[in-house]
Amino acid sequence: MRTRTLEVAAVIAVTLLLTGCSGGGDRGDKRNPSGTPAAADKADITRRCVDAIADRAAAHKGGAVRSHPVPGPCARLSDADYLDAYMAGLEQAHRVARKASQGESGKAADGAGN
């Protein structure tokens, strides 16, 4: 009986030791209790969301860019943060398009002078 008690105590001790080590420390989910990303992740998620929306806007030449369905990188953002990222993505796409069109008009002007 004494051997069985020692075996059970050893198994419990090892189990507690292993479950304490397997928590992963800082590698856990970085969400706060409300389910939104922590501040450290938020900037990266927002940047990826803005890029996804800008890519979507670039693919819709001259057409309206719908805000739904929400791109995958934006799924973890709150509604307000998604709206901010959506507007920033549209601005980014328009800025890139403007630079591209200015570059093309500059090349045309250079070619016409020869």
Description:
This is Lipoprotein. This protein has helices at about 1-20, 40-60, 80-110. The protein has three helices and no strands. The chain is elongated, with a radius of gyration of 27 Å.
Q: Based on DSSP secondary structure assignment, what is the total number of beta strands?
A: 0
Q: Which whole number gives the mean pLDDT? A: 76
In angstroms, what separates the terminal alpha carbons? 101 Å
Beta fraction of the residues?
A: under 5%
Given as residue ranges, the uncertain stretches (5+ residues, pLDDT < 50) are 22-29
The main β sheet shows up as: none
Gyration radius, rounded:
27 Å
Helical region count?
Answer: 3
User: What's the SSE pattern?
Assistant: HHH
Spatial shape: elongated
Structural class: mainly alpha
Helix content: 55-70%
Number of domains: 1
Protein name: Lipoprotein
Region (Disordered): 21-42
Write the layout of secondary structure elements.
Blueprint (H helix, E strand, L loop, with lengths): L1 H20 L17 H21 L19 H34 L2
